[in-house]
Amino acid sequence: MYKNLAIFEKTYDLILWLYPTINKFPKSQRFVLGQQIENASLELLEGIIEANSERNKAFYLKRLSTKLDKLRVLIRLSKDFKFISIRQYEFVSGHINEIGKMLGGWLKSVS
C-alpha cells in the first residue's frame, strides 16, 4: 500500500497520536475544536493518497500545504486554550514540521 511513502507513515503516526489526545479535551471542545483537528488530519492523509496517485502531483501537493497550515493553526489554538500541554505541543509541532519538510521536498521534486 503506502508503507514505503514516508510522508504517509508520518501523517498516519500523527493521527494515531492525535485521537487519544483529543479525547482528553474538555467535553465542550471535543466536538468543536477536536473535531476540526480530526477532520484536518484525515484530510491531510487523504490528500497524500490522492497526490500519490495523480499525474499532476504539484496541484495536489500545494493544496496539501494549505491543509497542513490549517492543522498547524488548530493545534496552536488547542495549546493556547490549554487543551494540550507545552510538551505535547512541542511534540506534535515537531511531527507537523517534519511532514511539512517532506511535503516541500516532494513538491520540489515534481516541479
Number of strands: 0
* Helix coverage percent: over 70%
CATH topology: de novo design (two linked rop proteins)
Secondary structure class reads: mainly alpha
By DSSP (H or I, 4+ residues per run), the number of helices equals 5
Classified by CATH, the class is Mainly Alpha
Annotated CATH architecture: Up-down Bundle
The unreliable regions are: none
Largest β-sheet summary = none
What is the ordering of alpha helices and beta strands? HHHHH
What's the name of the CATH homologous superfamily? 23S rRNA-intervening sequence
Averaging pLDDT over every residue, what do you get? 93
| Large-scale geometry | elongated
Q: What separation lies between the terminal Cα atoms?
A: 25 Å
Number of folding domains?
1
- Portion in strands: under 5%
Rg is: 14 Å
Summarize the structure in words.
This protein is mostly helical and 111 residues long. It has a single domain, classed as de novo design (two linked rop proteins) (Up-down Bundle). Helix content is 82%, strand content 0%. The longest helix has 25 residues. The mean pLDDT is 93.
What is the secondary structure topology, with strand pairs?
Blueprint: H1 6-22, H2 27-30, H3 33-53, H4 57-80, H5 86-110
Helix pairs in contact: 1-3, 1-5, 3-4, 4-5
List keywords for this structure.
111 residues; 5 helices; de novo design (two linked rop proteins); mainly alpha
Quick rundown:
With 111 residues, this protein is an all-alpha fold. It has helices at 6-22, 27-30, 33-53, 57-80, 86-110. Helix 1 runs antiparallel to helix 5 (86-110), helix 3 (33-53) runs antiparallel to helix 4 (57-80) and helix 4 packs antiparallel against helix 5 (86-110).
